[in-house]
């Protein structure tokens, strides 16, 4: 397993056909083949799941090379078990990447293509989406947070920055204080990398002052930054040492993505404590910060270009997918056609 997507030493990371490259060229080839560190970790985890499945469903069958029939069987089993379409796509990509790094051709034939197309159609129709919330709901929630505590200051900053910056949770937890700069009346956030920017091209988002100090993302950031009492390092960190008799203390360990998800649900998902185990339908998640920004921006008449300038979506189709304006009464052209 560790030999499929290793993470140290340049030379052994490349297929045999690359071994003749000098060290400098090999380092670039390695970056091109392996991708971002987060992607490598996701693929490692995915391949462990594949190996476990093979041991159960196809005992004695090696991971490499994998036949198209086995991959089709695996993809279908993921679909039947209720996995999201994005998860299925990533598992297939991990298998293909393992073949590529081993100098093998990925499994591919007409039958596999048909099965994957069918999965896209059937699973795609029932794809779960993060539920959106309104600005009014966010403002009410944020105004109720106890900002006399470290947790309250941190959580208020995360919610306001996450929403107004249309951030993904992976972007939020990766933010460093060095990424923030006050410029021309706005707080500009520079993203070294993101889900759609794996090449490290410079991307910027802007946060703006709000009339109310209680719901202003810039003031919330500054209040939290003052408590951090440093100028570099992670912005959203874990709090440790809490007990009945003492308040939590700051650490320098970043919040995990899962912790951001729980934080958003704790404040904004009224059903989080009443849902049945395994029920993930139409729920508030960390991704709701981003989806809600798009939805509210569309609802208030913002043009697509300005929305994409903040979300960094690469296509208008993705903006359409993210916005949740589907209230049959509130979001219906029939009420404004002039009758």
From TrEMBL:
Tree of life domain: Bacteria
GO MF terms held by the record: DNA binding
Tyr recombinase domain boundaries: 128-335
An individual GO BP term: DNA integration
Keywords per UniProt: Chromosome partition, DNA integration, DNA recombination, DNA-binding
A Pfam family hit: Phage_int_SAM_1
Domain Core-binding (CB): 19-103
Protein name, entry field: Integrase
Family annotation (InterPro entries): CB, DNA_brk_join_enz, Integrase-like_cat_sf, Integrase_catalytic, Integrase_recombinase_N, Integrase_SAM-like_N, Tyrosine_recombinase_XerCD
Lineage summary: Bacteria, Pseudomonadati, Bacteroidota, Cytophagia, Cytophagales
Provenance organism: Hymenobacter jeollabukensis
């Amino acid at each position: 397993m560790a030999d499929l997507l290793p993470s140290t030493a340049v030379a052994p990371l490349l297929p045999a056909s690359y071994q003749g490259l000098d060290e400098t060229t090999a380092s670039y080839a390695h970056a091109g083949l392996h991708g971002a560190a987060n992607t490598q970790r996701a693929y490692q985890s995915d391949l462990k799941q594949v190996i476990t499945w093979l041991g159960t469903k196809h005992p004695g069958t090696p991971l490499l090379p994998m036949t198209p029939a086995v991959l089709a069987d695996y993809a279908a089993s993921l679909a039947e078990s209720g996995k999201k379409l994005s998860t299925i796509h990533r598992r297939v990509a991990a298998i293909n990447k393992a073949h590529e790094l081993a100098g093998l051709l990925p499994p591919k034939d007409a039958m596999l293509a048909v099965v994957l197309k069918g999965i896209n159609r059937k699973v795609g129709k029932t794809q779960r989406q993060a539920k959106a919330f309104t600005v009014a709901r966010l403002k009410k929630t944020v105004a109720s947070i106890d900002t006399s505590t470290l947790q309250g200051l941190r959580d208020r900053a995360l919610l306001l920055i996450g929403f107004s910056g249309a951030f993904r949770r992976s972007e939020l937890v990766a933010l460093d204080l060095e990424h923030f700069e006050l410029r021309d009346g706005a707080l500009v956030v520079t993203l070294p990398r993101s889900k759609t920017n794996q090449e490290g091209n410079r991307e910027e988002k802007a946060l703006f002052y709000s009339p109310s100090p209680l719901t202003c993302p810039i003031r919330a950031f500054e209040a939290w930054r003052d408590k951090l009492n440093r100028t570099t390092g992670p912005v959203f960190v874990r709090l440790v040492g809490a007990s009945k008799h003492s308040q939590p203390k700051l650490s320098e360990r970043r919040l995990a993505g899962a912790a951001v998800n729980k934080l958003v649900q704790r404040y904004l998902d009224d059903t989080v404590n009443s849902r049945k185990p395994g029920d993930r339908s139409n729920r508030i998640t960390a991704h709701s910060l981003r989806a809600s920004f798009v939805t509210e921006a569309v609802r208030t008449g913002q043009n697509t270009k300005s929305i994409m300038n903040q979300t960094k979506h690469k296509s208008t189709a993705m903006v359409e997918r993210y916005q949740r304006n589907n209230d049959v009464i509130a979001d219906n052209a029939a009420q404004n056609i002039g009758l």
